[in-house]
Every structure is written in structure tokens, then in C-alpha cells.
Amino acid sequence: MTLENYEEMMDGCVRCSKCKFLPQLQIKSKRFSHICPSIEYFNFHAYSGGGRMIMANALQKGRIEFTPEMLDVLYSCTNCGGCEVSCKWVYDLEPNEVIHELRVKAVESGAGPLPKHKKYIELVERYQNPYGEPSEKRPAWIEDDIKLDEDSNTIFFVGCTAAYRREEIALSTAKVLNAGNENFRILGTDEFCCGSPVYRVGDREKAIEIMKSNVELFKSKGVERIITSCSGCFNMLRTEYPRYVETSFEVVHISQLLETMLSDGRLKLTNEVPMKVTYHDPCHLGRMSEPYEPYEGEKVEILSQVYMWDPPKPERLGAGGIYDPPRNVLKQIPGIELIEMERICEYSYCCGAGGGVKAGFPDFALWTATERVQEAEETGAKGIVSVCPFCSTNIRDSLDYRESEMEYFDLTELVLMSLEGGE
Ligand code: SF4
Ligand code: SF4
To answer: Residue 100: which residues within 8 A CB-CB, separation 6 or more?
Structure first.
């Protein structure tokens, strides 16, 4: 797809602003009625999904050109996909897809991405990760008692953030896999970034190169099944890769696998973990991970100005994301009481880190995480649980900033505490 393919869609934006809020039926309070962190923070229409559609349309029609100010607006979006879920309730437009295409166009024309994004893309190319860490350090989180099966066709794809910045999540994931007798290995120093940070800022060409080379790597290593603990990696491998390259591997998120391991009795949770917790849905495990179904139908006018898709078009409203498995696991931990926030599942609120925002606009990223933390605090829970190392970093930053009494846990850490003889 290119921006041109979205022209009719962009013309169809009626500037109703519904993409700034949760769908009306999902709103529980004015305080937490927003779905778009960008418009909430910057408070000017251009910073909403619809505003960026207008910008993209004007550029496509040759009325404006890329300017530094426009790039700032374009990149201060977390690519959380919330605008798209809200718009599709009413108008069936895809503002998040349009934003992505506008970023691709910005990169292709030489205007984008932002300097900080260019810097980490260089690091990915040079060091296989956006942190500029040496490959030799990638498996440094492994402890001696972790059992790896070098003959397994299942890998734990650790991801750059867990490997270099949130090692505790890599470790607790490996430990729960061992506890459940799940045979797996890791790619160690051969693992390469999944491509998410490159793809999300619009460098699609380089991202596709990474996808291709990763797929070749998996093939050459006989990989048939990939386990991820990172929602960003999961989204790329499960949802984005098949749009651009042929894949032949299964992708499982650790929360799904934990649910299976509990239901078939491979894991037994016996230790009490007495705590009230709330669960944060990562956008990339939730609404953004719903698979794309290729569609080649057409829009037909059935009455004057009344259109239908023939055959019916897949809706992709976000309901196909992963929502139940992490919750079902939490509910099986003795002593854990799960209290939901107001914005959950496909109507969840972003942690603020994605889409290159943590690198490009750290203040905005922190502000968004703080909005989410305040929502979590309102539940009265003592723990905020999620399943994404990147969300973890941003939410922890906000907990520190607010000097909050809440504590952040990855789901695997709570499971580990509850295991027979666990930590
Ligand atoms: S993108 Fe959709 S929800 Fe947003 S202003 Fe346009 S039509 Fe309305
Ligand atoms: S993707 Fe998220 S941050 Fe970006 S415009 Fe849509 S709702 Fe706002």
C-alpha cells in the first residue's frame, strides 16, 4: 500500500473527532474518556488521528510539503492504534494505517524520520539492536541453571529491550518455561532486532530487509515456533511480518503459553501472592496484534451515498488481540485479586513509549505513562502488571517520577513467585 491507496479514505474523514475518545458506549468517566494520548497532551487537532489524516491528504494532493513542524506532529504519535478502533465504530477509516503510510512517505522523500530515530536505526544496522550494545552481551542475562535444549525447534526470541535493559523479564520468562518443562533454545548472539523500532518510524525498506534476514535466520536454524515475552516483537512476528514476507513459523506470546501450561497441569501455582493488581494491555499485544486479512473487494453504492463492501470487508476492530490469556493466568495465582482499570482490552490506553516516541519525545512518553499510572492508582491496586519490557520501562519511569506506591510486575515474575518452591 502507499499513501495514494488511502486517498478515498482520507477524503472520507468528516472531522468528527471521535478518534480522540473511546467509543461512547465504552466511556466510564470523563477523566479517562480519551483514547489518544497525543491529542490529550498537545491539544491541537493536527495531533489526533483525524488531524494527521487531513495532513496526509493535503500532502498527497500536493497542497503542503514536509516541514520540520509537520514532522514533529507526525512523529509525536505512539502508533497505538486507538484512533482506528474508535473511528471504525462509526466510519470504518484507518487513521493509524494512514499515519504509518505518511511516515513511510516522509522517509522515502528524505524528510523523515527524526534525527534520534535515524541514530537508533544506524545502531540497529551496526549492532543488531537499537541500544548500540554489543551482540556478545545479548545473552548475558542467562544464569547457569537455565536449561536450554539445543535440539529444540522452539526458540525464545528475547528481543532487544529484555536482553539489554529488562534482563529480569528475560530471566523470569526462561525460568517459567523451564518450570513448565517447555523445551526451547535462544539464538543468543545471533539474535537480531525484530525490526519494530525501524518499521514504526516509517523506514519500511530497511524493516523489510530485517524481516527477510530474520526469516532466513529462523529457517537456517530450523525454527518452527517462536515464543516472545515482548509485545512489540510479538506484533512484528505475528502480525506485520506476514504482510511483507512469507513466514512458516508459529508465534506464541508467553501469556498464551502460560495459560496453556496451567490448563494442562504443567505448571502448578501454590504459593500465595497476596496482592491487589491491575493489568495494563500493551497496544501491540492487544488491538495492534490482530492479524491483517488481505482484502480485494470493492465499495459499491447501494443507495444514493450509501455504500457497502462487496464481499464484506474484515472489520479489524481490535477484538482479535490477546486479552484473556494474561488475565486468566493472573486469576489463577493464589492471593492475587485483579481489579480492572476503566480503559481495557481494545479500548486500552497506551503506555506512551511506542512509535518512536520514547526516543523522540521523552517528556510526552513520560506524561502518557503517568496518565496510565494515575488510572491504575485509582483502582486501589498495589501492583501494575503487564507483559511487555518496553511498557515496563516507561511505566517504571513514571512510577519513579510520581514516587508512586505502586509496583510494576511482569506477569512471569508473579507466576514465578507463586510456583511451588518459587522465588
Ligand atoms: S479519523 Fe474518523 S473518527 Fe477521526 S475525525 Fe476522521 S472520521 Fe472522525
Ligand atoms: S495512533 Fe494513538 S497516539 Fe497516534 S493518533 Fe492514533 S490514538 Fe493518537
So the answer is: 79, 200, 202
- Tell me how far the alpha carbon of residue 95 lies from the centroid of ligand 2, in angstroms: 8
**Ligand 1 neighbour 89 (Cβ under 6 A):** no
Q: Is the CB of 18 under 6 A from ligand 1?
A: yes
User: What are the tens digits of pLDDT across the range 201-257?
Assistant: 999 999 999 999 999 999 999 999 999 999 999 999 999 999 999 999 999 999 999
Closest CA to 381 of 270, 279, 308: 279
List of domains in the chain:
1-112 (1.10.1060), 126-263 (3.40.50)
Nearest-atom index, ligand 2, CA of 84: 6
The predicted-structure confidence for 46-73, as pLDDT tens digits, reads as follows 999 999 999 999 999 999 999 999 999 9
CA distance linking residue 229 with residue 217, whole number of Å: 20
Q: Which atom of ligand 1 approaches the CA of 51 most closely?
A: 5
- CB of residue 11 inside a 6 A radius of ligand 1: no
Ligand 1 neighbour 49 (Cβ under 6 A): yes
Who's near 201: CB < 8 A, 6+ residues apart?
75, 103, 107, 112, 113, 114, 117, 121, 355, 356
